């Protein structure tokens, strides 16, 4: 039985460093360009990035003149993000915390949930997260969710094959399986760097595109767009990624 709170301990230095290397600057620029243009964000906009990971989106948004608050449960990731902000001379408010514990000030112009994080929580937790985002964002403010575990993306042609990826001296082997009883994707990772080996499991709850709409509607958001990538391509059955736009 997989740990429902797996994300509280998963994001240590080795997995975080792997993803820091794997996510290219070009990916980050494309994401930020899409967010800013689609939501019409003016410089100085107040942006909530939750969870923010090691801060790649937060840092670029701050470099473009936005006021950014990043929240993440991984102390290692937040420490890395703070150091990167200090090196770049950027003022970003990075905080360690659960994604549901974001500032409910109603003052943010937009909230971001990127990096496939939306499926970390079960349905009850997801509803709590959406409620927290609604409390953080001002009326008329925006929301962007980047989700790769939508049912329409995962299930067509799912095989659960083994995959091996490398970034420099880090190798990760991934074995995936689908939990039919709980509608969850279980990704079993083995990270290796020299003599260091880490075996750990990530869990993503699978939601249909319609279920996502239901979560957001219940939280007070209206979906305004579904895209397959930052180039604006429409989301379709089998698209590997859903970039969903909404307004409060």
Automatic annotation (TrEMBL):
All copies of the Methyltransferase domain together span 47-141
Q: Which UniProt keywords apply?
A: Methyltransferase, S-adenosyl-L-methionine, Transferase
Q: Is Transferase set as a keyword in this record? A: yes
Native organism: Pseudofrankia asymbiotica
The protein's GO terms of the molecular function aspect are:
methyltransferase activity
Which InterPro entries does the entry mention?
A: Methyltransf_25, SAM-dependent_MTases_sf
GO biological process entries: methylation
Q: Which domain of life is it from?
A: Bacteria
Record's protein name: Methyltransferase
């Amino acid at each position: 039985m997989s740990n429902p709170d797996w994300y509280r301990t998963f994001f240590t230095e080795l997995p975080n460093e792997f993803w820091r290397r794997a996510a290219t600057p070009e990916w980050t620029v494309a994401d930020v360009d899409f967010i800013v243009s689609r939501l019409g964000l003016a410089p100085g906009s107040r942006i909530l990035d939750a969870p923010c990971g090691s801060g790649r989106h937060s840092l670029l948004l701050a470099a473009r003149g936005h006021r950014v608050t990043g929240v993440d449960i991984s102390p290692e990731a937040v420490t890395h993000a703070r150091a990167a902000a200090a090196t770049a001379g950027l003022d970003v408010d990075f905080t360690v915390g659960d994604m549901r514990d974001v500032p409910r000030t109603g003052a943010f112009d937009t909230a971001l949930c990127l990096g496939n994080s939306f499926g970390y929580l079960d349905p009850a937790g997801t509803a709590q997260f959406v409620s927290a985002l609604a409390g953080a964002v001002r009326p008329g403010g925006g929301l962007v969710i980047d989700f790769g575990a939508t049912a329409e993306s995962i299930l067509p042609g799912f095989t659960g094959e083994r995959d091996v990826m490398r970034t420099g001296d880090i190798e990760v082997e991934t074995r995936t399986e689908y939990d039919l009883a709980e509608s969850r994707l279980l990704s079993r990772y083995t990270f290796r760097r020299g003599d260091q080996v880490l075996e750990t499991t990530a869990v993503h709850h699978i939601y249909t595109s319609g279920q996502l709409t239901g979560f957001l509607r219940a939280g007070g958001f209206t979906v305004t767009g579904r895209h397959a990538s930052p180039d604006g391509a429409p989301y379709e059955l089998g698209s590997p990624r859903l970039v969903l736009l909404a307004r409060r």
